[in-house]
Amino acid sequence: MENLLHKDITDGIINAFYKVYNVLGYGFLEKVYENALFHELSAAGYWVFKFK
Fold first, then answer.
1. What's the total number of domains in the chain?
2. How far apart are CA 40 and CA 43, in angstroms?
């Protein structure tokens, strides 16, 4: 499992997801989580596309 090609990127995305979820909790619409994850990933330095 340590020879994964994009392990560092995957770990960063999963960490951003958990950070958003731990702050917001559950019960919001998907769009709320999508926007929060977009901002969290952008703040972490990831280049993110936002589709409307």
1. 1
2. 5
Could you tell me if residue 11 is inside a domain? yes
Q: What totals of helices (H) and strands (E) does the chain contain, helices first?
A: 2, 0
Whether 2 is covered by a domain: the verdict is no
Residue in the block written with tokens 């330095």? 45
**Burial category of 35 from C-beta neighbours within 10 Å (exposed 0-12, middle 13-18, buried 19 and up):** middle
- pTM for the predicted model, two decimal places: 0.79
**Chain segment 4-52, per-residue pLDDT in tens:** 888 999 999 999 999 999 999 999 999 999 999 999 999 999 987 776 6
